[in-house]
Amino acid sequence: MIFIIDAHLPKSLCKYFRALGHTAFHTTDFPLGNATSDGWLSEEAAKKSAVVISKDTDFFHSFLLNRKPPKLIIVKVGNLKLRGMKQLFESQAESLALLLENHDLIELHLDKAIVLE
Q: Which of 19, 29, 111, 115 is the most exposed place for a label (fewest CB within 10 A)?
């Protein structure tokens, strides 16, 4: 599976998905870095059949209206500190990847992941 992590989240989250054998990119890996537009990321995700991970509700609305990106994890944890964000993804990366095998839209909270479709 391929994951694209949006600019509002730390690049270090890539390592949790890579450790599970997945491919993971952060916006900083693309030519425009954190200035990469949401539209471009959605199109790139569609081309690669990738999962976008973001806190940005614009992706949520785009998913609902256009199914772009094709798979989305919307992160709903508020202003979680870096250490907490790392701990959350370290503990949830495997279960998120498993959920994405059968579902396209997941909302991630501090205490649970909710399948929204």
A: 111
HSE toward the beta carbon, residue 86, CA cutoff 13 A: 7
CA distance 73 to 68: 12
Task: Please identify, in words, the CATH class of the domain defined by 2-115.
Answer: alpha beta
Secondary structure of 34-90 as H, E, C letters: HHCCHHHHHHHHHHHCCEEEECCHHHHHHHHHHCCCCEEEEECCCCCCHHHHHHHHH
Pairing mode, strands 2-5 and 113-115: unpaired
Amino acid found at 47: K
Measure Cα distances from 63 to 1, 71, 91 in Å.
Answer: 18, 8, 26
pLDDT digits (tens, 9 = 90+) for 10-41: 999 999 999 999 999 999 999 999 999 999 99
Tokens of 67: 């199914």
Q: Where are the domains of the chain?
A: 2-115
Q: What is the pLDDT of residues 55-66, one digit of tens each?
A: 999 999 999 999
